[in-house]
Specification:
CATH topology: Rossmann fold
Number of domains: 1
Organism: Methylococcus capsulatus (strain ATCC 33009 / NCIMB 11132 / Bath)
GO molecular function: S-adenosylmethionine-dependent methyltransferase activity
Number of strands: 8
GO biological process, one term: methylation
InterPro entries: Methyltransf_11, SAM-dependent_MTases_sf
Largest sheet: 8 strands, mixed
Structural class: alpha/beta
Keywords: Methyltransferase, Transferase
């Protein structure tokens, strides 16, 4: 059996527990917090990278942010999203193979817990930079790990390659982005995953009846290990905001309020 949260069964279980097609912790609360302070008047075209089943892309469309394009490498997720959310344009696409002119001129490129799962993150960030307009914005919510430390081994390959919080600015600079702010969202992630574990417990009968007891054991065991790793700070969460590096009318203007405590301050 294919025990992966990125499998169709895993995504369906998460959607049930989260009461929506979201693949990131915090669901709509996380989206609203991530976009707080963005210059909405300058954002009209949005690119959702790793859109999954389309819930986040639909949130932006429903809240009037503009034209949203969602891309994901998984064909089943894209097929589902197209049927479920007709207001959004969804494309099956490997982010590391995006090309102009199909992908260019986006005002906002965003990822919610997606970069960690992309094997070639440098190429992905470079391609996203190509897709952004001059002065465009990158919004990134993802897992982090301490510098020079591997991810918690008990989470296996499914945790992918979380970004290094301390060096994310260098990573962005090497791919054409300029770091604006980074926030430590580890405490938020821990609370959101504790809540998710409680939701799994409430949905136990549905998960067992629909997917079998082994799936219930897998999701509860994996996410409990994730929650414990967050509590021990062997794994973290972050919100990163960046802009394109080349000069543009808005590129040098800060678009966010100053974060008290400086970079890495806990929310």
């Amino acid at each position: 059996m294919d025990f992966r949260m990125n499998s169709p069964a895993g995504k369906a279980i998460l959607a049930r527990a989260r009461n929506g097609d979201y693949a990131h912790p915090g669901e709509e609360e996380a989206i609203a917090a991530a976009v707080d302070g963005l210059p909405r008047e300058r954002i009209h075209r949005l690119l959702d990278v790793g859109c999954g089943r389309g819930g986040t892309a639909d949130w932006f469309w429903r809240h009037g942010w503009g034209e949203v394009t969602g891309v994901d490498i998984d064909a089943a997720s894209i097929e589902y999203a197209r049927m479920r959310y007709p207001g959004v344009r969804f494309l099956q696409q490997d982010v590391c193979r995006m090309e102009r002119p199909q992908f260019q001129g986006f005002d906002l490129v965003y990822l919610f817990t997606a970069l960690y799962a992309i094997p070639d993150q440098t190429e992905a960030l470079r391609r996203m930079r190509m897709a952004a307009r001059p002065g465009g914005i990158l919004l990134l919510v993802d897992y982090t790990r301490p510098a020079a430390q591997p991810p918690p081994p008990e989470l296996g390959p499914e945790i992918g390659n979380p970004i290094e919080f301390e060096t994310v600015g260098d990573t962005l600079a090497a791919t054409g982005w300029k770091l604006q702010t980074r926030e430590d969202w580890t405490p938020r992630f821990a609370v959101w995953y504790e809540n998710l574990l409680e939701r799994f417990a409430r949905e136990r009968d549905w998960i067992v009846d629909t997917h079998g007891p082994d799936w219930y054991g897998y999701v509860t065991g994996w996410y409990e290990a994730l929650w414990k790793a967050l509590g021990a700070r062997r794994l973290g969460g972050t919100l990163v905001r960046a802009t394109t590096r080349e000069p543009a009318r808005f590129a040098a203007e800060p678009f966010l309020p100053l974060i008290h405590g400086g970079e890495g301050a806990e929310p």
